[in-house]
Structures are given as C-alpha cells and as structure tokens.
C-alpha cells in the first residue's frame, strides 16, 4: 500500500509546481540573476551568475518587503538551521509553547514558514511594535506575534491527554501515513485548514472548471504499472519486438 502513498506525494509535488501559485513563479519572483549566457545558441553553455543565498523572514518571497530585505549586492549574516527530516507541523495544529513568557500555554498554529523552521501561534509569544511612524505622525502601536522554532519552541498536543508530546510518522493498515503520539499512541490528524489555498477553503467546496482544471478522477487514476524491466525492454514488449541477437563474448582480465 505504500506505493499509493508514494504516488500521492508525487501528485502533491506536481500540484506545487503547477498550481495557481506555482513554485516556479515564486522562484522567479525573488531570484537575482546578474549575468547569463543568451538562450538559443547551442555554442554557449547554460551558465549564469546569480545570487544563491537569501535571507528568509516573515515576509513571503513574492512580496516587495522580501525584495527590500534582499536587495542586490547586499549580504546579511547567515542563519544556521537545524535540519528536519520530515515536517510535522501544519496550519491549524494545537501546540503548546515550551519557551518564553507564554510557556505552558496552548494555541492554534496560524502560519508556517518552513524556510526558517518557524510557526506562529495565535495570540501567543506576542510583542508590541509601532508602524507608520514619521515626523508628523507618531504611528500606531499594534500587537504582533513573533515566530517560534519547531525544534525547541513548541510541541504538538496529545488529543487524549491534552499535554505536549513527541510524535512519530507511521502507516495505518490502509496504507495512509499519519502522525502518532508517542505518549498515548493516538493518531493526530492533519487539520483541514492545512489544505486551504487561494482558490478555496476546503476541497469539498471547490467547483472544478471543466475548461481549465484537470478532473480529480484523472489525477487519482493510476496509469503506471511497475515492472522489473528497463525502459528499452518495456518499449520492446509493448511493440512486440523480440531480441534474437546473440551478444559477443567479452573477457575481463
């Protein structure tokens, strides 16, 4: 059953690449190319000089604030992140804050920024900041939520004990991949709000556009059958070609 989970992940990757906010557009919106060879000339290799390191903050890569924070020829101090093998926090999760003034309080995750291992919890870990201040106007003081590290700042809440717990990814008998609490062995389902996109709030309420959208039945349809054969062998079998040549003997010394 794991093959279906693998194929489902591939469908999710294709959705990221070709959705209404595709990954290719996000990359183009913030990339800084200083020089590159012209396209359409086979004698020139596909070489370019571009910026490789960016400073990711609370502003998303396609916004003007992100461009101002990463202006050309300006380099900021590198931020070191602890690598996470498999992401386990999603929008809508109930978590408990483990550090700071709100330690021990529980809240709902409102935003996730995986580039910095950050999550924002509604109404917790807040601070005051002044916006719109200039020479004539004193500005407006607003309450802003600060990010928390998923490695040390928050933990998921066990749905049975309502206490923070470590989790582990496991497979059910049906082959579905789920998060399981190590404290009570209860499944922690992924919230529905994690599926929200610009197009719709939930998958059930989305109305397909027959002229532009690919039908859900076509997306979930499995058209590939795995075989213990190479690509050439698969083509020969489908076209009815039989190999009758005898390979020449070769000797290795």
TrEMBL record:
Keywords: Mitochondrion, Ribonucleoprotein, Ribosomal protein, Transit peptide. Its main location: mitochondrion. InterPro entries: KOW (IPR005824), Ribosomal_uL24 (IPR003256), Ribosomal_uL24_C (IPR057264), Ribosomal_uL24_CS (IPR005825), Ribosomal_uL24_KOW (IPR041988). Residues 88-115 form the KOW domain. It comes from the Eukaryota. The keyword Ribosomal protein applies. Transmembrane segments: none annotated. GO terms for cellular component: mitochondrion; ribonucleoprotein complex; ribosome. GO terms for molecular function: RNA binding; structural constituent of ribosome. Signal peptide: none annotated. It is found in: Mitochondrion. PROSITE patterns: RIBOSOMAL_L24. One of its GO terms (biological process) is translation. Coiled coil: none annotated. Belongs to the universal ribosomal protein uL24 family. NCBIfam families: rplX_bact (TIGR01079). This is Large ribosomal subunit protein uL24m. It comes from Parnassius apollo (Apollo butterfly).
